[in-house]
Amino acid sequence: MLPDFNALAVFALVAEEKSFRAAADRMGVTRSAVSQTIRKLEETLGIALVSRTTRSVALTEAGERLYAEAAPALVDMQGAIEAAANLRGLPRGRLTLAVSSIADSFLSGPLLASFLEDNPDVKLHVTVTDEEFDIVAEGYDAGVRLGEVIAQDMIAVPVSGEQRQLAVASPDYLERFGRPRHPSELASRRCIGWRRAASVAPYRWEFEEDGREFSVAVADTITTTDMALMINLAIAGAGISFGMEDSFRPAIARGELVPVLEEFCPRFAGFYLYYPSRRNMAPKLRALVEHLRSFRQAAG
User: Fold this and answer.
1) 295 φ, ψ to 5°?
2) Cα distance between residue 243 and residue 231, in whole Å
3) Average pLDDT score, the chain
4) Domains and CATH numbers, the chain
5) How far is CA 162 from each of CA 175, 202, 235, 267, rounded to the nearest angstrom?
6) Which residue of 40, 148, 220, 256 is surrounded by the most CB atoms within 10 Å?
7) pTM (2 decimals)?
8) What does the pLDDT average to over 210-216?
């Protein structure tokens, strides 16, 4: 006897969340209902899929193999079911996106707010993350990343124009310590850097000179995972910071930050909404793609 689609979908959620309670919360059911579904699935297959303790949930070897094989197929099946259920082309359902924290033009608010206003039957969930992972395997409908890091087998739709990273400092800092003339000087300056997590190395600052790209490992006097804190510290005169120009633009416009080393900061491809190529594209995702294109066209 083969397990039903719903049981596999419940198992995939448990595997993703590593928690019966979190999976139950996402589905809007009780924890016991999830537990019973997993137990029946294990009985049907004749093998344990999940190891349970009072504090954690882990997959067995069989569970890991089933999840690795079933998760991508479940995503495709869900898309096909939604496409069939929406023959009239009305976007509906939960749209899940994984978006880079530095994609300011996408996360600023107006684009997504107007999309939801035009599509009231769509429920939007946005995970802001800088982790690199397979959005299909993780169950996301689409992602937003810089074009240079998107896999070639994905369909990509522009979210922004060209981007560049800037080094910035407050007027007070520059008055006290002077303006750097070359990126190599940053090694001896107090800098405010970004790192994805405390366990990984700080992000290297990248520049270009005479057509040659190079990076600088600045002194990591201050590092953080939060761009807003980087900006606040730079405004307060704590040091020189480095990040996307769009993130600094409001503070630059207010005169709170001043760009430095601009001649060494090249432009590059911007942000893209990306998603896998599927024959049956869900109406909710198609609606977002069309709205994005219209929004950018109206914005000029």
Assistant:
1) -65, -45
2) 9
3) 86
4) 5-69 (1.10.10.10), 86-158+270-299 (3.40.190.10), 163-268 (3.40.190.10)
5) 31, 24, 25, 6
6) 256
7) 0.62
8) 90
